[in-house]
Amino acid sequence: MGASCCHHDHHGHDHGQGMVEKGTRPALWIALALNGAMFLVEIVAGLAAGSTSLLADSADFLGDTANYGIALAVLALPLAWRARAAFVKGATMGLFGLWVAAETIRHVTVGTIPEPATMGAVGIAALVVNVAVALILYRFRGGDSNMRAVWICSRNDALGNLAVLLAASGVFATGTPWPDIAVAAFMAGLALWGSAQVIRHALQDLRHDRAASAAFAD
Question: Which CATH number is 21-217 given?
Answer without folding.
Answer: 1.20.1510
